[in-house]
Amino acid sequence: MKRFFPKASCAAALLALSGCSGWQSALDPKGPAAGELAWLIWFFTALCAAVWMLVMVVLVATLFQRVRTGKDPLVLDLASEHRKMRVVLTAVGVTAAILIGLTLLSFFANRTLAGIGSDEALTVRVIGHQWWWEVRYENAQPSRILTTANEIHIPAGEPVRLLLTSTDVIHSFWVPSLAGKLDLIPGHMNVLDIRADKPGVYRGQCAEFCGAQHANMGTFIIAEPRPQFDAWLDDQLRPAAAPTNAEAKAGADLFLQRPCVMCHRIGGTPAGGTVAPDLTHIASRQTLAAGTLTMSRGNLAAWIADPQGIKPGSHMPVTALNGDELNAIIAYLEGLK
Ligand SMILES: [Cu+2]
């Protein structure tokens, strides 16, 4: 069983682990919101580092000066006391100015962030569940509303509005390369506007402790050129592919006879459950179980045979299946491109 990790050279992997670059890093911005935040982070860090260095230099200089002069500290020299008072007052003034300046900077950064999505091209509802993401593409035409899970395709270079909410506990949506984090709160809707400047895959994860499998609640934003995105959306809106061979046909029947049907939806079949990821096009996704496993026949089998072994506590129970039944169900799901 292979955990999901991008193919990368050793050096690239190290760089990614350092957090400074890679597909999930606030310091490697790939969109205007993340760019604004990265700029703010670096500016705050640089300025605070400069202030700290200055304080250290002054501290060390005064310590040495005191040792050198060796004067009695109880003998006061009025002129030098006044001079010191002026230095302290100036330092207090500079400190206040820096603090006010930084506050203004974050205020204006917030305004820039608020302006990003005013002309959004697409609205996607993201609903947090323990421990996966329901993704719903809104459309004025009901037949063009699409429900999928965990992987969010968006057109690159266009503003996308995400409507964030939750069905159970508070989660937090964070794709660091694209935007800051924002909570998903039951009974409340938060709005997050994002834009990916370039096509690419950006990883994100739940950033608010939400229970046992919080760490395995990953998500992916897949930004594609507009034509590719439109083609993807049209594909996803189609009902599930019909099974093409006897084994897959048996798998489809089994899926409908077993508890799977109570929780999962497969478009175009009687399976209409809504408490678990939509499986209509499961085989077109790159990962399984919210980014926990790569999509493959073996991982699909591992997951269905023992979801509790892979994500203990997750809300998918173990279903008793013999080897043939498991193979049949996988043959069916593999065809759901
Ligand atoms: Cu969560």
How many discrete structural domains?
3
Low-confidence stretches: none
Looking at CATH, which topology of the largest domain would you report? Immunoglobulin-like
What share of residues is helical? 40-55%
Mean pLDDT: 90
Structure description:
- With 337 residues, the protein is an alpha+beta fold.
- It has 3 domains: 32-115; 122-237, Sandwich (Immunoglobulin-like); 246-334, Sandwich (Immunoglobulin-like).
- It is built from 9 helices and 12 strands.
- It has a 5-stranded mixed sheet with strand order 3-2-1-5-8. A 5-stranded mixed sheet has the order 4-10-9-6-7, with helices on one face.
- Helix 2 packs antiparallel against helix 3 (78-115), helix 5 crosses helix 9 (323-334) and helix 7 packs across helix 9.
- The chain is elongated.
- The two termini are 22 Å apart.
- Bound molecules: copper (II) ion.
- Residues 128, 131, 171, 206, 210, 214, 217 line the site of copper (II) ion.
SSE order and pairing:
Elements: H1 10-18, H2 32-69, H3 78-115, E1 122-129, E2 132-137, E3 146-149, E4 151-155, E5 160-166, E6 171-174, E7 182-184, E8 190-194, E9 200-206, E10 218-224, H4 226-237, H5 246-257, H6 260-263, E11 287-288, E12 293-294, H7 297-305, H8 307-310, H9 323-334
Parallel strand pairs: 1-5, 4-10
Antiparallel strand pairs: 1-2, 2-3, 5-8, 6-7, 6-9, 9-10, 11-12
Helix pairs in contact: 2-3, 5-9, 7-9
